[in-house]
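DM from R.C. (forwarded with permission)

"hey, sorry to bug you on a friday — could you get me a structure for this? deadline for the figure draft is monday and I only need the backbone to look sensible"
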Amino acid sequence: MDELNCGARVPLSFWVVAGLGVLWNGFAVMGYWLTATHNPSAMAQTPAEMVEALNHTPTWAMAAWGFAVCAALAGSVLLVLRRRWAVPAFVASLGGLLILTIYQVAVNMPMSIPQIITIWLVALFLLRFSSSEAGKGLLR
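My reply, with the result:
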């Protein structure tokens, strides 16, 4: 089936979603990096109670966050490249996000519930989208 669709025209909507995925997850990686490195200007813009919570976040939770955003960015880049590996990358990203979310809820981390819901909705959408496009034969 892949050989039949190699020359198939890819809809503009595919490129829009894939491009927005790279931007969204690129910003997520940047946010993680600025937080993990305790960037002074980023920390200055962060509420004091969140900085305190981040200072006490264990390494494994930070690693889960880093893994989640890096896997999501990899999935988005693989989507742009039209590679089937985008699907497992998004699945892996959800694993990291699940671990991070469980930690955040368990320690009652001061966080924005709408932001967490949005992150989950986008992550699930990108997984569903990549799976659907793979099923259509648009990913090789």
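R.C.: lifesaver. The two ends are 10 Å apart (CA to CA).
me: no worries. Helices lie at 2-5, 12-36, 40-44, 48-55, 59-80, 86-106, 113-135.
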